[in-house]
Amino acid sequence: GARGELTTGEWIEIDHGIVRVGTTDPAVVQPIIDKVRAHGAVIKSIQARRPSLEDLFMAAVADGGDTPGATPDKKPKAELRPGTETDTSTESSTKGGLS
């Protein structure tokens, strides 16, 4: 997959038709959804994903344990994923990719 940074500073990752964004801010996610649709992709679901306990543990260990409650990338992710109905919660699906 590919990983980069948005002009707004959040990270973005595209892997096997799944787009992950380092934010749950709707204002940041909307232009991404627009671009996905402009490329002819159909968004099947959008869903927020909170960090798992493993994510929190790995972030704390990587940070030397100095930051209680630290999360990887310090923000929950939003995912765009192909194959299911649109769900406005926060994990999203797409067919195709972004360029």
Report what the structure shows.
- The protein has about 100 residues and is α+β, with helices and mostly antiparallel strands.
- It contains 2 helices and 5 strands.
- It has helices spanning about 25-40, 55-60, and strands spanning about 1-5, 10-15, 20, 45-50, 75-80.
- A 5-stranded antiparallel β-sheet has the order 1-2-3-5-4, with no helix packed on it.
- It is elongated and about 45 Å long.
- The two termini are about 10 Å apart.
Topology:
Layout: E1 2-5, E2 11-15, E3 18-21, H1 26-38, E4 45-49, H2 53-62, E5 77-81
Antiparallel strand pairs: 1-2, 2-3, 3-5, 4-5
Brief sketch in words of this structure:
The chain is of the alpha+beta class. The protein has two helices and five strands; from the N terminus they run βββαβαβ. β1 and β2 form a beta hairpin.
Keywords:
about 100 residues; disordered C terminus; 5-stranded antiparallel sheet; alpha+beta; 2 helices; single chain; 5 strands
